[in-house]
Amino acid sequence: MKDGANLKKLGEFGLIERFARQISTGKGVVLGIGDDAAAFQPSPGRINLITTDMLIEGIHFDLSLCDPLSLGRKALSVNLSDIAAMGGEPRHFLLSLAIPPAMTLDFLDNCFTGMLQRAEQFGVTLIGGDTCASPATLVLSLTVLGEQFPDRIVPRSGARPGDRIFVTGTIGDSALGLRLLQQGERQGSAIVRHLDPLPRVLEGRALAEANIPSAMIDLSDGLLADLGHILDLSAAGARIHSEALPLSADFRGHFPAITEQTLSLALAGGEDYELLFTVPPEKISHVLPLMEKLGTPVSAIGTITEERKLAVIGPDGTEISLDRKGFDHFS
Ligand code: ADP
Ligand code: MG
């Protein structure tokens, strides 16, 4: 265990020092890594957004199925996705690590490199964190700080009957990718979607800036579950049309017949990291041109209803009943 020994020799402070050396000072950062707390200056007129998400080995990832570069990128992406869903601009992040005895320095270096690649891509700076030993599994806990003009925050609670429901990109690819990984495959676009999702930060910001969505959420637990959160908080229901769901060519290639099972995978599989948003009737025509400018596909998949029920309507106009509703850690 040459690498393990390296990590031991380096020690907690050596590792923090090794990470800190690779960080350049970000815009607005008054004090970064190294002091008791970080200090940063928000842009004038904006308020802070803050979000945190953990990735736990054995729950969120399996070290035999993922590479450290992608894992590092994904850990940041899933957090950036939450800032995107508020229409915000991500600025800084904190990284807390719980490291098991068997972890190698090489793995940590690559994981950190991946994280910094994504950080650079979205203009965020690492400003602190915590580093501990873990008895058995690796834990990556990230906190992302972002900012937004107070009147541009897009809540989950703003959907109203008659609003159209849109979703960016395609859904179900990540769930398919995980299934393929578990079956022994290692390549393909669905696997990339699972291991290395890209957050829709630009899309979220552009939508909020144009004041288009009445409500917005990122898809982490599966479309049905996440739309369900919007419906709960907006005290509304929705009708989704199965034929309007955006399924990738790859997804359709794997499932030539769209059955209830494949629909379940697309609607409840989770980890799509697309944005789902609702749009009042008078703004519907603004959505496509804006997303076209960004080169991002977007689909209208249904409508918000007064009746507090989430219905998926099949091609023949009748309701499809799906038993899997989405991912829940405790069920
Ligand atoms: P304290 O004991 O005061 O909590 P630490 O020794 O935990 O301080 O951390 C020292 C400095 O290193 C702090 O600025 C902290 O934010 C930073 N830090 C610790 N772990 C990490 C990490 N994994 N990534 C980035 N910064 C870190
Ligand atoms: Mg600490």
How does the SSE layout of this entry go?
Layout: H1 2-20, E1 29-31, E2 39-40, E3 47-56, H2 68-84, E4 89-99, H3 105-122, E5 125-133, E6 139-148, E7 164-168, H4 173-182, H5 189-195, H6 201-209, E8 215-218, H7 223-234, E9 237-241, H8 249-254, H9 260-268, E10 275-279, H10 284-294, E11 298-305, E12 310-313, E13 319-320
Parallel strand pairs: 4-5, 9-12
Antiparallel strand pairs: 1-2, 3-6, 4-6, 7-10, 7-11, 8-10, 9-11, 12-13
Helix pairs in contact: 1-3, 2-3, 2-6, 4-5, 6-10
Bound molecules: adenosine-5'-diphosphate and magnesium ion (MG).
Which kinds of small molecule does this entry bind, naming each only once? adenosine-5'-diphosphate, magnesium ion
The CATH architecture category of the largest domain equals Alpha-Beta Complex
Helix residue percentage: 25-40%
Radius of gyration: 21 Å
List unreliable stretches of 5+ residues: none
How big a fraction of the residues is strand? 15-25%
Task: Kindly describe this structure.
- By secondary structure, the protein is of the alpha+beta class.
- It has two domains: 3-152, 60s Ribosomal Protein L30, Chain: A (2-Layer Sandwich); 164-320, PurM-like C-terminal domain (Phosphoribosyl-aminoimidazole Synthetase, Chain A, domain 2).
- 36% of the residues lie in helices and 24% in strands.
- It contains ten helices and 13 strands.
- The longest helix has 19 residues, at 2-20.
- Adenosine-5'-diphosphate is lined by residues 16, 19, 33-36, 95, 97, 126, 128-131.
